[in-house]
Design brief:
With 93 residues, the chain is an alpha+beta fold. Helix content is 31%, strand content 35%. A 4-stranded antiparallel sheet has the order 1-2-4-3, with helices on one face. A hairpin with a 2-residue loop joins strand 3 and strand 4. The longest helix has 18 residues.
């Protein structure tokens, strides 16, 4: 029974995280160009699960930008009858 509870908890805390648009860096970009990206995560579940997904999103944006980034906007949206939070971000460095 204990193993079943652990397995169920792991399934619930699945990050369900997708980097929809990865920031693209280019050697031909204009001066001052800052790559942008979009990430989404599932907005369903208990508060602590959603908070964990948000933290995973922060970690992924940090990795995609090799450090500093800023959030331009956040919005709630739907895809295939599931509710997601979309974050548009920009690399800062």
């Amino acid at each position: 029974m204990k193993h079943l509870i652990i397995l169920f908890t792991l399934l619930l805390t699945c990050s369900c995280l997708t980097n929809v648009v990865r920031p693209m860096k280019s050697e031909f970009a204009p001066v001052g160009y800052k790559p942008k990206g979009t990430i989404k995560y599932l907005a369903n579940g208990a508060d602590f699960i959603i908070s964990g997904r948000r933290e995973d999103a922060f970690r992924e944006m940090y990795r995609a930008c090799n450090g500093k980034y800023s959030i331009n906007s956040e919005m709630l949206g739907y895809e295939y009858n599931s509710q997601y939070i979309f974050i548009n971000y920009q690399c800062e460095g």
